[in-house]
Write a structure and sequence with these properties.
By secondary structure, the chain is of the alpha/beta class. The protein has one domain: Metallo-beta-lactamase, Chain A (4-Layer Sandwich), CATH 3.60.15. It is built from six helices and 14 strands. The protein has helices at about 60, 65-75, 85-95, 180-190, 195-205, 225-230, and strands at about 1-5, 20-25, 30, 50, 80-85, 110, 115-120, 120-130, 135-140, 145-150, 170-175, 210, 235, 240-245. It has a seven-stranded mixed sheet. Strands 7-8-9-10-11-12-13 form a seven-stranded mixed sheet, with helices on one face. Helix 3 links the parallel strand 5 (about 80-85) and strand 6. Helix 5 (about 195-205) runs parallel beside helix 6. The longest helix is centred in the middle third of the chain and has 11 residues, at about 85-95. It is globular and about 50 Å long.
């Protein structure tokens, strides 16, 4: 199974990265729809696209307005958008307000209620995260492989969500701050390096990829990868357009 990291920063794009968007081309699944959403057309291998939103902050949903062009470049017979009901209501009322976006998308907004079946005998389930305004994480399982996506939360190995990650093959987790900004992570509802690595170790993940990096830095390593690897050796920094096999 392939996962493409279309966008790996948060808040706003910079000259190196776009905001959050992950794509599973073989099964037509997108996780979040940030400014990188326009890139999906070059990778999609299905005639449908299911978008799963962690929450409705603009850096995670602005790309929903780009889907017209994605569908124009890669013919899509079906687009569905999933999320918590109150987040979808905010998207419909504000992002798709005629004064902001005059062409209301025709795609259904579907509230998440339990597990969602995926192509290839897969299933997606979600779990709550602590973040301003609320957020959720996702775990996706297929026979013999699994991945999880956690963004916009303050990482802790004792957090309730860690039990949802147990034994996952690939964990894609936000890491907005380096350890020297741990106080800012706590204040803003985001994560810092060593805490994320401890989460991966506690969960027994097979591999950790760090995303939602701070857009104020254009450095190749803005969070101290060596710090994470000292705790969890199988850690990598996510880069835009990185293709991961799991």
């Amino acid at each position: 199974m392939q996962l493409v990291l279309l966008g790996t920063t948060g808040y706003h794009p910079n000259d190196r990265r776009h905001t959050p968007c992950l794509l599973l081309p073989e099964c037509g699944v997108m996780l979040d729809a940030g400014t990188a959403t326009y890139r999906a057309a070059r990778y999609l291998q299905t005639s449908h696209l299911d978008v799963f939103l962690t929450h409705a902050h603009l850096d995670h949903v602005i790309g929903l307005t780009y889907l017209f062009n994605v569908a124009r470049v890669h013919a899509l017979e079906r687009i569905r958008i999933f999320g918590l009901a109150e987040k979808l209501a905010a998207v419909e009322k504000y992002l798709f307000a005629p004064a902001l976006f005059p062409a209301k998308p025709p795609w259904p907004l579907l509230p998440l209620e339990g597990e969602v079946a995926l192509e290839g005998s897969g299933r997606l389930r979600y779990f709550p995260l602590v973040h301003q305004g609320g957020s959720i994480g996702f775990r996706l399982d297929w026979p013999g492989r699994s991945m999880a996506y956690v963004t916009d939360t303050t990482a802790s190995p004792d957090a309730p969500y860690v039990k949802e990650l147990r034994g996952v093959d690939l964990l894609v987790h936000e890491c907005y701050f380096a350890d020297n900004q741990a106080a800012w992570a706590e204040k803003t509802g985001h994560s810092h390096t060593s805490a994320v690595a401890l989460v991966a170790r506690r969960a027994g993940a097979g591999r950790l990829v760090l995303v939602h990096l701070n857009p104020l830095s254009l450095e190749a390593d803005p969070i101290g990868l060596d710090v994470a690897r000292a705790i969890f050796p199988r850690t990598e920094l996510g880069e835009d357009l990185m293709e991961l096999e799991f």
